[in-house]
Amino acid sequence: MTSARAAKTMPRYSEPVGEARELFMLKDEEELTLPPAYSLVEVSPYTDATSHALRLAGGGEAEDGTIVCSKRENVFDCAVVLSAEQPLEQSALVVLVAVMALADALSATSEPGTKVGYEWPNVVTANDREIGKVDIHLPEGTTRADTPGWIVINPRIGIMGPPDGDARLKEAGTTLHFEGSYDTTPGQLLQSFGRYFLTWVNRWLDEGFKPIADSWSLRATEARKDLQVTVEFGGEKVTGVLVGLDEFGGLILKPGRKRKTLGLLDALGL
Questions:
Q1: Could you tell me what percent of the chain has a pLDDT over 90?
Q2: HSE (side-chain half, CA atoms, 13 Å) at 196
Q3: How crowded is residue 197: how many other Cβ atoms within 10 Å of its Cβ?
């Protein structure tokens, strides 16, 4: 995979018990096919994919493009290890690239008519409710001036159960099953996300961030020029007309006559 040169988490699901365990495991017969740019590492339903990826990355045991995927069937939960070639301000853009890919994967695999959208900086929505997220993890001590030694992103989508049936699903707002998409599997989402992520990363590296920002803005605003949004930022709510993204992934709003830019790194807590 091309390096992320211009590149955290919902509460964990409670572990299924007894006979219910089999319902939450990725079906063994589901064959996963990913582009050759990736190296797939599958872990048990009881192993946290992100923690495992962080151990591999921190120990120098994961190459660029390693995907660690949990075998849980009630959630698509994976972690992708990436290299970086630019300082954090540029490298962190990979979160928005991954959000684009995750939304495309959701659109391709969910029930027709599902309205897929974004909430800046890293949330994916289905029918205007949060259904997934992309978090970013860096080596301890990484500053904004540093080029990260590695990046781990964690895209995830809730699949099974009503949103009030589990603490993590409740925080997410909805799941694929709750929205009527009963046939979508974690394996389908993984394969679709892998393809779309590679496509968007290559476009980012070839054409810069502007095409990503333009595409993000078009979907986020639903092609409207007067869409009012409210964003949690710095402990307060900021409301304004959504203008788009700046070159560093910052959200540009127009609360009044003047524009206001909310920084991506601040929003991600980096």
A1: 63
A2: 22
A3: 28
Rounded to the nearest 5°, which phi and psi values hold at 129?
-125, 145
CA count, 13 A, side-chain hemisphere, 88 = 20
Q: pTM value?
A: 0.85
In sequence order, what DSSP letters do the residues of 32-95 get, joined into one string?
Answer: ----TT-EEEEE-TTS-HHHHHHHHHHTT---TTEEEEE-BSSEEEEEEEE-B-S-HHHHTTHH
Instruction: Write the DSSP symbol of residue 4.
Output: B
- Closest Cα to residue 88, out of 197, 8, 6? 6
Q: Are the C-beta atoms of residues 7 and 86 closer than 8 Å to each other?
A: yes
**Between the CA of residue 250 and those of 11, 43, 91, 225, 246, what are the distances in Å?**
26, 35, 13, 18, 5
Mean pLDDT, rounded, of the chain = 84
In the predicted structure, residue 140 carries a pLDDT above the cut 70: yes
The strand order across the sheet containing 116-119 reads 39-43, 66-70, 75-82, 151-158, 129-137, 123-126, 116-119
Tell me the backbone φ, ψ of residue 151, rounded to 5 degrees. Answer: -130, 135
Distance CA 265, CA 68 (A): 25
Q: What is the pLDDT of residues 73-96, one digit of tens each?
A: 889 999 999 999 999 999 999 999
Say if CB 113 and CB 120 are below 8 A apart.
no
